[in-house]
Amino acid sequence: MVSKALGKYVQSLHQKKYRQRHGAFLVEGGKSVLELLSSDLETEHLLVTAEFASQNHARLPARLPLSMATEAELTQLGTLATNTTALAVARLPQEKPLLPTLPEAALLLALDEVRDPGNLGTLLRLADWYGLPGVVLSPGCADAYAPKTVAATMGAFARVRVWERDLSEWLPTLPAAVGIFGADLAGDNVHRLTLRPAGVLVMGSESHGLTPGVAAALTRRLHIPRGASGGAESLNVAISAAILLDNFFRNQ
Amino acid sequence: MVSKALGKYVQSLHQKKYRQRHGAFLVEGGKSVLELLSSDLETEHLLVTAEFASQNHARLPARLPLSMATEAELTQLGTLATNTTALAVARLPQEKPLLPTLPEAALLLALDEVRDPGNLGTLLRLADWYGLPGVVLSPGCADAYAPKTVAATMGAFARVRVWERDLSEWLPTLPAAVGIFGADLAGDNVHRLTLRPAGVLVMGSESHGLTPGVAAALTRRLHIPRGASGGAESLNVAISAAILLDNFFRNQ
Question: Per the record, a Pfam family (chains A, B) (predicted)?
Fold first, then answer.
């Protein structure tokens, strides 16, 4: 049985305003909750079904505030269509310093107004797969800690660092040696280049592309060749990012 | 004003059972409807707002049954959260013959139990981008003509051919020269291979991988290298397919 106060608190975290006010966010579903528990993030509350608790007894930290809940309660308090396992409240991580020299040594992903939380989550998962040091989000992006984003990361939310920066201000502050890459239909064919995973790869929103200030900061425009008889006008932003990242990492 | 009978018919097409019974499916939103009208598919009914009709007058075929509808009616009859433009009923296309020699000359995508309509739609869009001759779906896949799939194709539904086959029966009937490729963590590193776009690329469901009969039919297993410090266990099925397709098409 979940207390009324805790239930109200959990439900408030559906909204960004309350996530920011309380410095906390929701993690829903057993798989994501187990990723949270095995990460560096701090867990504040854990709500679990009796079945999940008994199956994962060894993985639940002893010191943590734990509430038993029914499947109906988890589903009602959360945002998933059904939740039969677990839900956690985690502390929002402190933003680590974003060193301007970082992109000289490694590839950062920067997202310009990527508003769809599903796309954002998939991009964070991709950053995790390639072990990028993190992802820089423009203020117009979806919230990295919205329930839909967290779900779409498939656990990567617990590992990938994110920073929020006004990209049109931040990109020009980077050392001149840092490559700033972006996708552009009129750019260079990635199949003809030998890319190395260093610099910043900027991806824009699917519908609007890069904002003008960000487009102006690019030092290299990249183009993914379409099939000779291809019909689609464009690719999804996460799909494009995946193809570009594979092209950066294939020459290591 | 949409007639009651037409409204009922449109709503029945939310369900696969009625799509099959009537041989028709729904296309929702102005952009998708315009893709439909400029394709080879047959349009049965067109429901449009007055504003959409006046803005796209030249692109609406004169012979077509056309109903004017309010935004509220379109939204209520369809599956989108809001639809302020247009909705069409299109005829399900006739399945063209699937020649066993086709994959000797070109690359086909085959999907094994890909149940999520969003993923299926994204995969069809990808097939369209690369101009693949089509996509072969196992009976357990999401319906290629479900409203969510159609929406996720971003217009590719109007161009990409699909076939339904029991893959574990169909794959072994292909000529011996046809390569049957699948993703496998223990497979060959795609960055070390020179792949050509011919054969069949089989993608399995994200949660369960390839079914045993399909896995047994593969002639080559491919592996997408993860970043050296990467954390994610896996990639989304459409993301994996995109990276693999780029590797097939880069050596043309």
Answer: MRM3-like_sub_bind
8-state DSSP, B205: B
Backbone φ and ψ of A97, nearest 5°: -60, 140
* Residues of A with Cβ-Cβ distance to B118 under 8 angstroms: 118
- Confidence at residue B146, expressed as pLDDT on a 0 to 100 scale: 98
User: Can you tell me the mean pLDDT for A11-28?
Assistant: 98
Nearest to A239 among B122, B155, B247 (CB): B122
Give CATH 3.30.1330.30 domain extents, chain B: 4-91
Flag if B249 and A128 touch (Cβ within 8 Å): no
Q: How far apart are the first and last CA of chain B?
A: 53
Return the amino acid letter for B152: A
Domain A4-91: CATH class, spelled out: alpha beta
For chain A, give the mean pLDDT.
Answer: 94
Quote the ipTM score. Answer: 0.91
d(CA B110, CA B125): 14
Is B224 near chain A, with CB under 8 Å?
yes
Q: Is A130 on the interface with B (CB under 8 A)?
A: yes
CATH 3.40.1280.10 in chain A is located at 102-249
pLDDT (0 to 100) of residue A62? 83
Of the candidates A130, A131, A239, the beta carbon closest to that of B126 is on: A239
Chain B interface disruption, residue of A36, A157, A206, A239, most B CBs within 10 A: A239
Asked which of A30-44, A131-145, A178-192, B125-139 is least confident by mean pLDDT, the reply is A178-192
Secondary structure of B61-90 as H, E, C letters: CCCCCEEECCHHHHHHHCCCCCCCCEEEEE
Alpha-carbon distance B249 to nearest alpha carbon in chain A (angstroms): 7
The answer to whether A129 contacts B156, with C-beta atoms less than 8 Å apart, is no
Give the CATH number of domain B102-249. 3.40.1280.10
